[in-house]
Amino acid sequence: MNKKDMVAKLAEKNGMTKADAEKALKGVIGIISDELKAGGTVTLKSFGTFSVAERNPRTGRNPQTGQPIDIPARRVARFKAGKLLKDAVG
Questions:
Q1: Cα–Cα separations (whole angstroms), residue 73 to 27, 58, 65
Q2: Which of 4, 10, 46, 60 would be a feasible disulfide site paired with 84, CB 3.0-4.6 Å?
Q3: Mean pLDDT, to the nearest integer, of 46-69?
């Protein structure tokens, strides 16, 4: 499912126009993104938790030449599924 499909499904399930559904989806994605940029977490009870984790710097290898390269530390987004989501999928 892509964003277009999700907007159509959201509009259908909630009796709203596709334009309103797209605004709502963009709003939710924007709120989650802004909170993660600020270093916070977003918990949607029973669905899951979005958070930010720090990756330590490490040494990797260039696959073409085999030369070692330094990979810097960085922040990455994480998602941990909640119980209801796990049960629904599993």
A1: 30, 8, 23
A2: 46
A3: 95
Answer yes or no: is pLDDT of 46 > 90.
no
pLDDT digit string (tens) for 26-44? 999 999 999 999 999 999 9
What's this model's pTM, rounded to 2 decimal places? 0.79
Q: Which residue is listed with tokens 């049960």?
A: 87
- Token digits of residue 22: 């797209």
Distances in whole angstroms, Cα of residue 38 to Cα of each of 12, 43, 51, 75? 33, 15, 10, 11
